[in-house]
Amino acid sequence: MEQRVRGRLLEAVRSVEFLAAIAMFLVAIPLHYPEQLMPFLEIEAPSSVLGLERLALERLFLLLPITYLGFLFGMKAGLTGSGLALVIMLPNALLISEYRADALGEVGGVVAAGAVINVGFERLRRERERRRLVGEKLRVSEERYREIFENAHDAIWLQDMQGRITMANKACAEITGYAPEELVGMKVRRFLTEDPLNKAREIRRRLLAGETIDEPYEQEIMKRDGSPALLWLTPSLITSQGWPTGFQFIARDITEQAHMQENLDFYLQQVTRAQEHERQRIAQELHDETAQSLMLMAQRLDSLASSANKRRNKDVTAELQEVRGTTIEALMELRRLAQDLRPRILDDMGLVPALEWLADDLTQQDGIEARVEVDGTVPRMSEEGQLLLFRIAQEALRNVGKHSGASEATLSLRVDDDRLEMRVVDNGHGFTLPKAVGDLAATGKLGLLGMHERARLLGGTLDIRSERHGGTTVVVELPVSVMNRQVPRAGSARRQRPAS
User: Which of 87, 77, 99, 60 is closest to 18 using CA atoms?
Assistant: First the structure.
């Protein structure tokens, strides 16, 4: 460290600028001592130079090297120059000048002026250094951003307030078919059809209104070859001094994932449909064949018991009556199983009566006071839509009966202009929910997972809220736009079962 400082000092001493400053001091010495040195140097003392009095010229030649050293080499060099000027002027002020006080004032003025100028230079130098460092950091930051921007896996582009692309990275070529340099200057509306364009305008409006869009949204664009691509877009507003100047978009192509999800949904839909058809077939067979056989067996046992009673065979009569009772119980349980597999009321009367049947069954089987509330006219849904919504309600109420410890439960349907909401609420002890839907299977909550999948097949969402000792709420929201808006059949009219 000391060698470095010594080296820099030697380099400064050997520089032309340092020699120029020494020359200025050498010129100032005879000007400060004209009577003593100028005759000796055979120089006539000037009365004025360039219109300046000798005293003013003398001060100028003393201030110049001070400020010159301070400007080039820093405050320490400037203060050293002030010390050198003090050494030059002080003997004259103390030993030669007849006006010692004035001479000392002159010395102090020159030294003070040099110090003030050097302090100003030092502040200027520090400000320039600060700006240089800020500029360097900004340059490094811009280089890093550009490197990230150019090499990002996701497509990133910037557009101005008129929707014209100003920057685009390499990944944009993969999702649009255009090279980045071709994209610059294009308007984004070129890639959008009517519905996606309306969505883009809505996003723009929300951003300009100050909203922060944290979650990505889906947007469809048309590629160069005319094929559609589905993107996952994350937008943000670019501002300068508080004013919006453009937008940044980060995009990921999810076309293949969307196709895979569509195929998965299709297969899941087919499996669900096949499962329900099989349930319907089994329920029909149980109802039409097995239940009829049990009924005939019960009638035959009743006939045998009657004959045995006439013959006064009390033991046989009691045994036959017991077997008949067991057969009737099996018949009732069989009918209940058939109803669970595929309730006839759903096919015959519609969704709302089927939901009311579920509420009645919860009251009868588990002693939980349950009711159904309907707000608005429930639109006619497809057979599959009714069935999936019924299965969600069935699973939710079954969980209330088995696990909640509740005394009351409410199943409500509410219809807005474009949404249908089904809500199941109980006052039970609640439970701890997994952090993510994907954890439901790992924790053994397959029924809840099935509810989520059925809601997704309907194009809706399912939200479960539960707290310990605070009850549980299951909310299903579905878009009405995909449903038939006809008025339900008479059996599906709004009804609320009164509390018993």
Answer: 77
**Per-residue tokens: 271:** 């499996």
Domain that includes residue 162, residue range:
153-253
Q: How far apart are CA 422 and CA 419, in angstroms?
A: 10
Same domain, 207 and 129: no
Residues 321 and 353 in one domain: no
List beta partners, residue 247.
Answer: 159, 237
Q: Are strands 155-160 and 243-253 parallel, antiparallel or unpaired?
A: antiparallel
Judge whether residue 185 has pLDDT over 70: yes
The secondary structure of 284-307 as a DSSP string is HHIIIIIHHHHHHHHHHHHHHHHH
Q: What are phi and psi of 277, to 5 degrees?
A: -65, -40
Contact 231, 249 (CB under 8 A): no
Query: What is the rounded distance in angstroms from the CA atom of residue 7 to the CA atom of residue 226?
Result: 69
pLDDT more than 90, % of the chain: 16
**How many Cβ atoms from other residues are within 10 Å of residue 445's Cβ?**
19
Structural domain count of the chain: 4
Q: Helices 383-399 and 255-285 sit at what angle, rounded to 10 degrees?
A: 80
Average pLDDT estimate for 391-407: 87
Q: Which of 500, 354, 345, 340 is nearest to 422 (CA)?
A: 354
- 54-63, 181-190, 202-211: the lowest-pLDDT one: 54-63
Residue type, 159: Q
| 6-15, 152-161, 164-173, 346-355: least confidently modelled range | 6-15
Q: Within this chain, do residues 44 and 132 fall inside the same structural domain, yes or no?
A: yes
pTM given for the model: 0.42
